[in-house]
Structures are given as C-alpha cells and as structure tokens.
Model the fold of this input.
Amino acid sequence: MRDYTVKVLDERDLEFIETLRSLGVPRNVASLITYLSNMKEVSSREIEMGTGLRQPEVSIGMRTLRDNGWIDEHEVKSSGKGRPMKVYALKVPMAEIITHFEQKKLSESAQAMESIRRLKELSSA
Done:
C-alpha cells in the first residue's frame, strides 16, 4: 500500500462555495470551480477525494464547466491496465467565471424589472 496526498477544501473555500450557491450555482459546480481554482491540474479521483463529491456529481458538474468553456481536460494513461485517467484544469481566470455569474444575475434582474413594469402598466389600464 502507498501513501497518497490530496488537498482538501478549507474554511475560505467553503465560504466561496456557499457564496456561489447563494447565486443559484449548484453545489457540485460550485465545489468544482472552487477546487479547480486552487489546483494547477487534477484528476477526477483527486477531485472526488478533495471535495467529497461522488463520481457522478463530478461528471455532471464537469459537463457544466465544459459547456461554458472553462476547463481543459485530457487523459493520462494509468499505470498497468485499465482506462486512462481524466485530468482537469481551469483554462479561464476566476474573474471571468465571476463575470459570467454577474452578467447572468444582471440579466435576470432586468427581466424581473421588465415584468414588474408590465404589471404596473396592465394594472393601471
């Protein structure tokens, strides 16, 4: 048996995750963004151990990050038999990801204000 060291999320990371969640970001996506922002390159297994997410949660969350163009991924051949291991890294700065959520909330707010304006217009007719 060999020793294996994995970085885990600290209190500041957990606060970052909760702040993302307050914006409506799913827990798995918030955890992945936070963990990847602290790492240069990391395997899916390391992500599972470091975040406490299960493999399906990692896969589903990675789809969101992939769809937004936020990650680089490649496969690394594992020693011995078996499937290659996927390795991930953020390819955009955290500021760009934060701007994405900022723009999304601004758009939602504008839509809500337009609905309120329309309600006022309809109710005074």
The two ends are 77 Å apart (CA to CA).
